[in-house]
Amino acid sequence: MTGTLFSFGHGYSAQALSHLLQPQGWRIFGTTRDPAQSPMVRASGAEPVVWPGQVPQFDGVTHLLISVAPNAAGDPVLAALGEEIAERAAQFSWVGYLSTTAVYGDHQGAWVDETTPATPTAQRGKWRVHAEEQWQNVPGLPTHIFRLAGIYGPGRGPFSKLKRVGMRRIIKPGQVFSRIHVADIAQVLAASMSAPNPGAIYNVCDDEPVPPQDVIAYAAELQGLPLPPEVPFDEADMTPMARSFYNENKRVRNDRIKDELGVKLMYPNYRVGLQSLMVDG
Description:
The chain is α/β, with parallel strands linked by helices and 281 residues long. The chain has a domain at 69-154 and 178-207 and 251-266: NAD(P)-binding Rossmann-like Domain (Rossmann fold, 3-Layer(aba) Sandwich), CATH 3.40.50. Helices cover 33% and strands 19% of the residues. The strands form four sheets. A seven-stranded parallel β-sheet has the order 3-2-1-4-5-7-11, sandwiched between helices. It is globular and about 55 Å long. The two termini are 32 Å apart.
């Protein structure tokens, strides 16, 4: 299967998908707010579109991917282009909206899946729920929601954190996070594009939610670095944004991407993922 993908907010995850699709013969357009980022967009196999600025052209577009973060007013893409997208709804074979597992809020370490009600506590999660609903409510649009866990991969992850002066392992008893390698995000999206199921919601995460300090410790071990010292959460010097992540504690199930899309994760846990980053540099 090939087609033409228009990618709004063509960043880290969208570029991974572009790298996967472009060799298969896809034509891809990717937006960036900063003209200086156009070479990076082009390097992923996409044709850069500076937006806002240039007017997106949807003629011939078969697939839409939205990675743009919402704000208090809702989804910026729909705010600017919602009328045209709605008018062209029948043109699109697949629309993917990249959301976050933050929509589930805090479950005190219990498991959640796609049937769990969205009860976000953080503002970013509330904005995401509203944006999800906006896309789902566009009549006739084949919308798919992807709730992403914490993303890591080449150039992004614990290895860079270990280089920071004064790095600590923050300890909050019972706290776990789910995460996902960017290459697995790309393969989940590609699998969905090959088997559209409008209205579907997918959690995109690996098999093993773990305490964040375990990931840092394993990264240090792989690099032969000293184990960063521990600091209790209540005593840690953190930004309000970083601290807010620790206010939500849950384990996210990923059965649906396996059962419905047939996805076999390349990096089913952080150990395999970090080992691959060591090999790949």
